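User: Predict structure, ligand flavin-adenine dinucleotide.
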Amino acid sequence: MTHRICYNVNVIVSALKDLGVESIVNVSGSTLSSVKCGGVVDLIIKPNSTSKLIDALSLLNAYNVPFIPIGAGTNTLITDQGFRGALVDLSKLNKFTVRGNQLYVESGLRLPYLAHKCASCGLKGLEQLSGIPGSVGGAVVKNAGSFGLEIADLLLSVNYLDLPSLSERVVDRPDLPYSYRSSSNFFKDKIVVGATLNLTPSKDNLSLEISRYRAIRLSRQPTEPSLGSVFKRTSSGESAGYYIDKANLKGTSLGGAMISTKHANFIVNRGGATATEYLGLVSLCEQTVKEKFNLSITKEIDIIGEYHLDQ
Ligand SMILES: Cc1cc2nc3c(=O)[nH]c(=O)nc-3n(C[C@H](O)[C@H](O)[C@H](O)COP(=O)(O)OP(=O)(O)OC[C@H]3O[C@@H](n4cnc5c(N)ncnc54)[C@H](O)[C@@H]3O)c2cc1C
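Assistant: Predicted complex:
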């Protein structure tokens, strides 16, 4: 089903400009998602403060423009049909402050940059997460993790905008329903604007530790454009990639999309892939693993836009 566009995007862009909020029209998904494919999104807005975010969202609400937050787009596929609405790009919410061992960081800052900054300030904690290419907001929503550490392990609290009321609120870590790669929909109808992390002062060579983790990643993961792991671990804790590999799907391609030969849980764009081709391989993995092992595997990636493949 296609949404009927019932707003004039030029009027909205002009009103956003008056509010001091940058926006771009007709943006290709290939520039928004790290797998570098996808259709056109009507509008991207880039507020640089929480108050401008609130102003911009009030405006979108007034014009009935649907919107979805996006961080670095490293876990999000935009379908070839694109999105008739606005993506709220949080990359300009990118400040951080350190007080003792507590770090308050806005949601748009990327984890690798933050981890390097903390390492150079002698604050330990983010080394294992330093290779996750997403934003702090995306990591908080997805409970991103690697090398045995999840962002939830470091969080003290999260600042968010409650979308129905457009008011900023704070939730403490114990009240967040985190589990493996999930915040259990707590952030549905919310936009994360910042997070307070608990780090540890350290004299260790943290930059060296970051390099060590980076080397391990490079040895295990493909370097072509991707969204990282496509599927979550199974309920018994096994890697979905193990089953995809066992089903002999590594190297299977559909157009420019391919199930990585290096890591079976990655689908890469070898050049010119469409989102439909990517999703075709997602379906193939789901169906084959179900048929061969009677196992349902669950997507880790998020999808923006409509699509019509068998699910
Ligand atoms: C090469 C590669 C390696 C990766 N390795 C790992 C890994 O080791 N571990 C891991 O966990 N993940 C990994 N990922 C996946 C990804 O980086 C993480 O899931 C990351 O946390 C996503 O952050 P993002 O900012 O890119 O989120 P996006 O993809 O932009 O968004 C993800 C979801 O969060 C929502 N969202 C984003 N920002 C906000 C916000 N501020 N408020 C509310 N909702 C928001 C979006 O609407 C979307 O539903 C990898 C990805 C790649 C490409």
